Amino acid sequence: MTHSVLFGLILVLSYIVLFVAERVWPLRQRKYPQQPRIYVNAIFTIFVLCIAALLIGPIVKYMLQFTHDYSFGLLHLYPIPAMVSMILGFLLMDLTMYYWHWMNHKIPWLWRFHNVHHVDPDLDVTTSMRFHMIEIAYSSIFRIIQISLIGLDPIIFISYELVFQCNTFFHHSNIKLPIQLERILNKIMVTPRMHGIHHSDYRDETDRNYGIVFSFWDHMHRTIKLNIAQININIGVPAYQKPKDNTLINLLVMPFRQQKNYWILNNDKKHLFRETSQDLPINTLAE
User: Fold this and answer.
1) pTM of structure
2) How many Å apart are CA 183 and CA 287, to the nearest integer?
3) CA 108 to CA 148: how far, in whole Å?
4) With left for phi above 0 and alpha for psi between -120 and 50, is residue 253 left, alpha or beta?
5) Among 13, 29, 59, 73, which residue's Cβ finds the most Cβ atoms within 10 Å?
6) How far lies 213's CA from each of 50, 88, 229, 270, 274, in Å?
7) Each residue of 91-132: pLDDT tens digit?
C-alpha cells in the first residue's frame, strides 16, 4: 500500500467516524435541515479536492524537491539531529498556518473568500472542507513561501498534513465530548468547543482561536477565548443568515459582489451579556 493511499484511507475513515459520531452525540442543535447543507458542502469539498490535486499538489512537490536539492530554508541553516528538525518543522508549519488563518480574517480581500467558510449557518465536519476554490488556489502562493522559508523535508510535510487535516475534521465537528476530557485535550490541541467559538456570529469571538492543530499559539498571541458556552453561540455571519445566502450559486459569486455589513448585530450588548454571565476564566472551556 502506497503512502498516498494510506494517507487517503486515514482521512476518509476519520471523516466518516466524525460524521456518524456527531449525529449520535451532537454538541450544538442544528438550525437548518441537514440535506441542503450537506449537498452544498459536498460540492465545495469536490472543488477543494480538485484544486488540491491539480494545483497545490504539484506546487508542493516541486517546492519540497527544491528545498531538498538546494538545502534551502531555516531547517538547513545549521546541522541539527533529524528528530529535532522534524519537531521544529512540525511546529513551524502549524505556526505559519496560524498566521495564514489570521491573515484571512484581517485582510479584507482575503476575507471575502474565507467568509464563504464562515457563513455556514451550522458547524460540523462537512464545514471543514467548505472553502471557495479561489481561496484554495491563492493559498498556493502561501504554500510556496511556507515550504521554502522553513525548508521542509517531505516526511515532515506529509506528517504535518495528515495531522493538520485530521484535526481540521475534528475541531469542525459537532461532536460532544465530556467537558473534562475536552479541557485536557484543549491544553494542547484545538477542539470542537474551542473552534465553535471561532465560528460565532459575534466578531470578537470570530476573531479569536485561530489555531489549527495546537492551541498554544492562541495563548501565546493572546487570541484565546474559551469561556463561552456553546448554547450561547449562534453559528455564522450575521449579515448572511438567510437561506438564500447559503445556496451554491450565491456562495460561488459572493466574494465578487458588494459585501454586506458582516457584523450587523448589536455585538456590544451581546458582549456585555456574555462577559457578565460567565464565571470561568477566559482560557477555560465552558460546558
Assistant:
1) 0.93
2) 10
3) 26
4) alpha
5) 73
6) 24, 14, 22, 29, 27
7) 999 999 999 999 999 999 999 999 999 999 999 999 999 999
Concatenating the DSSP letter of every residue in 114-148 gives HHHHHT-SS-SGGGGG---HHHHHHHHHHHHHHHH
Three-state DSSP at 215 gives coil
Report, in this order, helix, strand and coil percent for the chain, each rounded to 5.
65, 0, 30
Between CA 93 and CA 281 the distance in angstroms is: 29
Question: What pLDDT digit, counting tens, does each position of 161-191 carry?
Answer: 999 999 999 999 999 999 999 999 999 999 9
Q: What is the DSSP letter of 258?
A: P
Tell me the CB-side half-sphere exposure of residue 274, using CA atoms within 13 A. Answer: 24
Residue, of 267 and 6, whose pLDDT is higher: 6
Extract the C-alpha cell encoding 26. Answer: 451532537
